[in-house]
Amino acid sequence: MMKPIVAIVGRANVGKSTFFNKICGKRISIVDDVAGVTRDRLYADASWSGRDFTIVDTGGVELNSEDVFQKEIIEQVQAAISDANVIIFLVDGKSGVTQSDEDVARLLRKQKVPVVLVVNKLDTFDISSTYDFYSLGLGEPMPISCTQSKGIGDVLDKVISYFPNQDIDEQVSGIKISLVGRPNVGKSSLVNRLLGKKRVVVSDVEGTTRDSVIVPFNCNKKTYNLIDTAGLRRQRSVEKQSVEGYSVLRSMGAIEMSDVVLIVLDGTSEVTEQDVRIAGYVHEAGKPSVIIVNKWDSKRCSKEEFSEILQEKLAFMAYFKVLFVSALTGKGLSEIMKTVDEVYENASRRLTTGVLNDLIHDAILNHEPPSKGGRKCKIMFVTEAATNPPKFVFFCKEPQFINFAYERYLENRIREKVDFSGTPIQLVFKGKEEQ
User: Pick from 202, 292, 345, 422: most CB atoms within 10 A?
Assistant: First the structure.
């Protein structure tokens, strides 16, 4: 069976993200003193007393707020509640019961899901500070201090007591796919289209998605994990200690943890320096990728013209695959998962040593390695040392004579014979003493 889902809900700035991070044992959710930092649901695997579960962090609920994001946040919280096996309702012991707490409690009392009421920020662990929260009608309030890690174990003991008795051994599996790109190119809209549900906040305000949201889903009887990341801006315009700064770092982390990266561009605008920089991050990380040109319903040129621009701008990753889509109309979206599978298969492809050496032997016959001062580089044999990305190790005499042009020549010959489209490949040249 699926692992139980535990959703953390509550009004803004009561410490939900800090609590989430304590349970996960690492900093996944953004923690900041600014209310409303966590806007989308965040998923992470956690374990307590031998029981595995999925913990979900949600945005702060302020039902009477006029904030432009509140309607979307409430939809996300309600979706998280509908998925959950247990709900942790977090409140602030320093502030006492607020109208927002009462509003959230009223929403939770209508649910058929067990609710664990948790009173945070009780650094002195004064139990009397919890008494007022009985008025919320959600049972006994449990005191904790996230900053001091007090009481969290008791809360988790109660949470897992509501889990089904069956053994839970199903692990999250499948290709991990991240979406990266400049702010407001339509990444969240693409996520929602791909999932067929509204799972990520969508807004015309740049920088809406600040956290990387991991959402497992199935497509064509296969399991995938979709990661929607924060929009990447120019580094100099982002303060590293700001909320958005953490988002940029998280986007870089999402690229590293991905199996395939979807690089999203805006088809209605120029290919910018930042688009190229983001593609460079993906290339340097050695990740297979697909260029997704979104908003193609408002195209500004032909596909051929746009592809030529990409070939010029992305000359360092000439292996790229490109799709032209519209998250608004759904045009072209059916090709995305098919192409994801293709580039992942290419990145996972392993060549036998015999086939590979025959290929390189033919390449050398057509164009010998460089020489200098009467000394010649000689490639003795080559092997594929790794996949994802494919890594080819060439054992040579005088490997120092291999220059960029010859390395590019060998890469091109490999690509001509074998389909490595959509994935970088690495060529390493070793001398006799390095073998």
Answer: 292
Residues 153 and 53 placed together within one structural domain of the fold? yes
Q: What is the mean pLDDT of the chain?
A: 82
Q: Which domain holds residue 205?
A: 175-347
**pLDDT for residue 58:** 79
Q: How confident is the model at residue 171 (pLDDT cuts 50, 70, 90)?
A: very low
Does residue 168 sit within a domain?
no
Which tens digit of pLDDT belongs to each residue from 137-165?
999 999 999 989 899 999 999 999 998 76
- Alpha-carbon distance 31 to 277, whole Å? 27
Residue 132 and residue 210 share a domain: no
231-249 residue pLDDT tens:
555 555 554 444 444 345 4
Residue 172 has pLDDT above 60, yes or no: no
Whole-angstrom CA distances from 428 to 193, 258, 382, 390, 434 are: 41, 23, 10, 11, 11
Q: How far apart are the first and last CA of the chain?
A: 48
Same domain, residue pair 386 and 335: no
